[in-house]
Amino acid sequence: MFSGIARKNILLLLPVNHAISHVTFRNYLRYFSSLSSLSHVKQCHLKRDSDLDLLVRKIVVGSSEDEVFQILMQDPACGATEITHDLIGRLLNRFKDDWKSALGIFRWAESHRGYKPAPEFYDKVVDTLGKMKQMEKMRVFVEEMNMARLVSLNTIAKVMRRFAGAGEWKDAVRTFDEMDKFRLEKNTESMNLLLDTLCKESKVEQAREIFLKLKLHIPPNAHTFNIFIHGWCKINRVEEAQWTIQEMKGHGCRPTVISYSTIIQFYCHQFNFRRVHELLDEMQDQRCTPNVVTYTTIMHSLTKSEAFEESLKIVDRMKSSGCKPDTLFYNVLLHTLGRAGRVHEAIHVFKVEMPQMKVAPNTSTYNTAIAMLCHHGQEEAALDFLRDIQNSPYCEPDVQTYFPLLKSCFRAGKKDDCLSKLLDDMSSKRHLSFDLSTYALLIHGLCKRNKAEEAYNLFVRMMAQGIRPRYVTCRLLLEEIKQKNMHDAAKRVEDFVKKMKTF
Questions:
Q1: Residues 331, 323: contact at Cβ < 8 Å?
Q2: DSSP string of 191-208, one letter each residue
Q3: How much is the pLDDT for 25?
Q4: Where would one find coiled-coil regions in this protein (predicted)?
Q5: Hey, how many other C-beta atoms are within 10 angstroms of the C-beta on 76?
Q6: What is the DSSP letter of 179?
Q7: What is the CATH number of domain 325-417?
Q8: What is the pLDDT of residues 341-398, one digit of tens each?
Q9: Which of the listed residues 5, 154, 205, 446 has the most CB atoms within 10 Å of its CB?
């Protein structure tokens, strides 16, 4: 582990006039070895981040997949980059809303001799193509996967969900029918995936018809009926959901906490808390104990109806039942306390109670705390939480983390350097892709600050990313750039507004 010279150097650091046992000496060796390992890990992280930054800088937003591929192939610096699963995974995640860049990156990685993309990366590309409504490209890509025998049930699930999400539910059913072509079995699990896909897109009646045919040779399970309970509630037909509980009993399946919690959630959305409490009593009679999800759902809905005291009573009821809180529960509790104006108590929950209960915060926990503090005008405290999440071992900030802080930057009296620092952190350090809401906030805020050119640059970047701005954003930007005599920019925005009206 250490050379003779290294051992002598370590001895110089040992306490003077102290008898050194073999155990003590081994402990010192372990200590210095750990320092060496930590240094190596840090260097690996720095190398990984620098490779990511290099590749992201090379990719021009709005380029075609072939252009991205050629840029990465022809650049010597990119060619010298070590291709790893971690790097490709981070790149695909970075460009999950930019299918051209994602596909170009994948083709580049795939072309490297000695490197084979992980199966989940193929599925990631499938999902990205489907998400961006590139259905034909998704079909072709899946066929390529099939030739290489890389299509899994997870792949099929993503394909079906993207077809259904695009309104092409018959293609989702066709994908299930063709599972034999992909050497996959039609069984309870795959049937449930299809039914769940259809029900989540409100095609519950169609799913029911398909189920009646499939159940003749594929046995349903409790999850099958829970899918329908959720589907009926989604389309506001709670009577069918309640009848489904009786149907599952007839099939020998016992209703689960999910069965009841789904119907409770429906009544929570209706703010029918009398019925909620009746169902809680029914669960008790059926010896079906509510779980943390049940309580969290009720608490969230009571908070939404501004019944803050009633919401906090649910917290007491849950704790008295012995049900252990989780991260999502605490996220809702923080939101409740914030809405109730009890900021000090919320901070206590975050910094004291959650560590005591050994519940780790996630990105949403930090986002909730930051939004709460910004809402109550405590931006400095919110920035402290931002620094905490940036150094957190549990999670990383996302676009929503920065949104309330960006919003606070446009309040009267805030300096431009605060905004610039946040935007630099989001883009250059965190490599976050802005969403529609973030672009709208920034464009509106910059227009009000008489920074039409910067707002227009964001508009161009937004369009290149394939994100359609809202009509009100276009009108506001158009008025500002006309006042600045930015004629070419104004024509481009006007042309887009005309297309939007036609659409």
A1: no
A2: HHHHHHHHHHTT-HHHHH
A3: 41
A4: none
A5: 6
A6: G
A7: 1.25.40.10
A8: 999 999 999 999 999 999 999 999 999 999 999 999 999 999 999 999 999 988 999 9
A9: 446
- Rounded to the nearest integer, the mean pLDDT of the chain is 88
Cα→Cα distances 279→141, 227, 259, 282, 361, Å: 47, 19, 11, 5, 31
Tell the residue number behind the tokens 């110089």, with chain if given.
Answer: 12
Mean pLDDT in residue range 169-190:
96
| Contact predicate 163/130, CB 8 Å | yes
Buried residues in 241-255 as b, exposed as e (16+ CB within 10 A): bbebbeebeeeebeb
Average pLDDT (239-245) is 95
Quickly list DSSP for 419-460: HHHHHHIIIIIS-PPP-HHHHHHHHHHHHHTT-HHHHHHHHH
| Full-model pTM | 0.66
Q: Which two tokens stand for residue 314?
A: 């649910």
In angstroms, rounded to a whole number, what is the distance separating the alpha carbons of residues 154 and 179? 12
Distance CA 428, CA 490 (A): 29
Q: What are the structure tokens assigned to 442, written together?
A: 């920034």
Distance (Å, whole) CA 83 – CA 88 = 7
Fill in the DSSP letter of residue 360: -
What are 2-36's pLDDT values in tens digits? Answer: 444 343 343 333 333 344 344 444 444 454 344 44
Q: Do the beta carbons of residue 372 and residue 334 sit within 8 Å?
A: yes
Q: Quote the CA–CA distance of 372 and 337 in Å, as a whole number.
A: 9
pLDDT band at 320 (very low <50, low <70, confident <90, very high): confident
What's the token pair of residue 390? 């940036």
Query: What is the C-alpha to C-alpha distance for residues 157 and 331, in angstroms, rounded to an integer?
Result: 30
Return d(Cα 193, Cα 222) in angstroms, integer.
Answer: 14
Which tens digit of pLDDT belongs to each residue from 118-131? 999 999 999 999 99
Residue with tokens 């990156």: 105
Dihedral over alpha carbons 33, 36, 41, 42 (to 10 degrees): 150
